[in-house]
Amino acid sequence: MAQETKKNKGMESLLSYLGNMPWREPVARFAATAKEWSRIHGRRVVHTVHGLVSGNRAAGPITYLAGAGALAVALTLTTLYSPSYAITVDGETVAVVSDESVVEQAIRSVEQEGSAILGYDYHVDSDIEYNFVVSLRSDLSSEENLADYFYSQLDEISGELRKYQVLVDGKAVGVVKDLDALNQLLENLKQRYVTEDTVSVEFANQLEVAPVYQADQIMTISEMEQALLASSTGSTTYTVVEGDTFNGIAYANNMSSSELAELNPGVDINRLMIGDVLNVKELIPVLSVETVEDVIYTQSIECPVETRDDSSMYIGSSKILVQGVEGEEQVSATITYRNGQETNREIHSTTTLREPTATVKAVGTKEKPKTASTGSYRWPITGTITSYFGTRYIFGSYSYHSGLDIAAYTGAPIYAADGGTVTFSGYRGSYGYLVVITHDNGAQTYYGHNSSLLVSVGDKVYKGQQIAKAGSTGRSTGPHCHFEIRINGTAVNPLSYLP
Ligand SMILES: [Zn+2]
C-alpha cells in the first residue's frame, strides 16, 4: 500500500534526521516511546472513531523531551512533523491522517454515493484501527486518498453495475459495458493509421473514459465503433489547379457534382479558372488519430532551365532545345498525419544523390503581328441572345443549334472574336453571308446571316477588327449574328469561351 510506504519513509527520514543531531539520546528515546505509545493506544473500532488521544496527549512523547535542545526540537517537530494516525482497515494500513474527522468525512461521502449507486443503504463495514505516529506533514493523506480506498471496496460490490462512458472533447459519445473491449477498440482505431515508419500515434481529440453507474442506453462495441468513426460535415476550400474539372473535384471530395454546385452558388461550373477557390465538403471524424512518421525517401530534383533568345520565333512562344535530366535527392523528414492525411512535414536533411542537368529552351523575341491569335475570344457584337447553343424548338420542330444568335440591327458591325486567317467569306446555304476565321490553334469562328462581308479568304484579321455588317440573310427571321466556335471541327458552346 502506497500510504504505508509513505508513512514508513516519513518515519525513517525523521529518525535519520534526528539521528544526526548532537542530543541524540533523548530523541531516540522519544522515537522508541512513540512507537510503544501507539501500540498501547491503538484500538479497534468499527466504523466510528473513538476519542482516542484528546485526553491522553499530555502523557504522550512531548513530555519526555527535556534539556537545552528540547525547544528547538519541538519547533522543528511542529513545523515539519505532525502527530497523526495511521489508519489500518481490516489489517491493512491505508492512510496516515492528522485528524479522525478526515476518516469520518471520507466514509460519509462514500456511503452516500454507494447508497445512490446501489439503491439501498450502503455502509462501510470494516475494522478500522488508529495508530499514533509522527509523520512529515507533507506525507499526510487527504480525505480523497482515504475515500479512494473505501471506493475500491464499494467497487467490489458495485462492479457489476459499472459501465464506461466515452467522452470526446468533453462531449459524450455513448456508454459501453465492457472496458477491455473498449480499450481494444480504441487501440484498433489507432492502429488503422500505423505504418512501419510510425514513431508515435495518439488521438488528436481529448478522450476520456469515465465509469458511470446509470445510463439510459448501453452501446455494443460495434455501435461505439460506428459512433467514433462517424463524420460530421464541415466545409473547407479548394483552389483550382491546372487540369481540374468540376466533376473531378466533386469526386475527389466525396461529393456529387450537384452537391458541389450547391456549395458554390456563384460559380459557373462550365468555366472553372485556375486559382478559383471552391467550397468543398470536409468529413471530420468524431475521433481523429494523429500519427507521426520518421521517413527517408528519394525525390527528383527539377532541371534548371537555361534560355536562348530566338529571333525567328514570336514573343511568347518557346521551344525545348535540350531536355535536361532530373536529379535525385534523399530526404529525411518527420511527417505528421491526421487520419492518414498529411498535415505537417518537417525536413531534417536533404542529400543530393545525382545533380540534374539543365534544360535549354529557345525563347522567341520576334514581335507578334497584330493578327496573331491571342487564345481568347471577345464577343463579335453585343446584344440580346435570342437563341442559345444546343437543342431548341424552332420552325415547328426541335433542332440542334450549333451556335449563339445575337440580336443586331441591320448594318451593325461584326468583329473578329480573335486574330486569325479568313478561310471562308461568301454565301453558304442557311448561314447566308458567312465569314469563317481559322485561328492559330486550329479553332474556327463562324459569323452568319450578314448583310455584307468586309474581308476575303486569305486575309489576316486581328481580334476586334470589323469583318462584316449584320443582316438577315440565309435561314433567318430577323437581323442577327449567328456566332459559332468549332474546335477540331466540332461546334462547342460559345458561352464557355466568351468572357
Ligand atoms: Zn443561329
Brief overview:
With 499 residues, the chain is of the alpha+beta class. The chain contains nine helices and 29 strands.
Written overview of the protein:
The protein has 499 residues and is an alpha+beta fold. It has five domains: 2-158, no CATH class; 164-230, no CATH class; 232-285, LysM domain (Membrane-bound Lytic Murein Transglycosylase D, Chain A, Roll); 292-366, Resuscitation-promoting factor rpfb (Resuscitation-promoting factor rpfb fold, Single Sheet); 385-496, Glucose Permease (Domain IIA) (Distorted Sandwich), CATH 2.70.70. It has helices at residues 2-19, 24-41, 70-80, 100-118, 143-158, 179-191, 221-229, 246-252, 257-263, and strands spanning 43-46, 81-89, 92-97, 127-136, 163-168, 171-176, 198-203, 207-212, 231-239, 277-285, 289-301, 305-314, 318-322, 327-338, 341-354, 359-366, 385-387, 390-394, 397-401, 404-407, 413-415, 420-427, 433-438, 444-450, 452-453, 460-461, 466-469, 480-487, 490-492. Strands 17, 20, 22, 23, 24, 26, 28 and 29 form an eight-stranded antiparallel beta sheet that branches. Strands 1-4-2-3 form a four-stranded antiparallel beta sheet. A four-stranded antiparallel beta sheet has the order 7-11-14-15, covered by helices on one side. A hairpin with a 2-residue loop joins strand 2 and strand 3. The longest helix has 19 residues, at 100-118. The model is unreliable at 1-65 (pLDDT under 50). Bound molecules: zinc ion. Zinc ion is lined by residues 387, 401, 403, 405, 482.
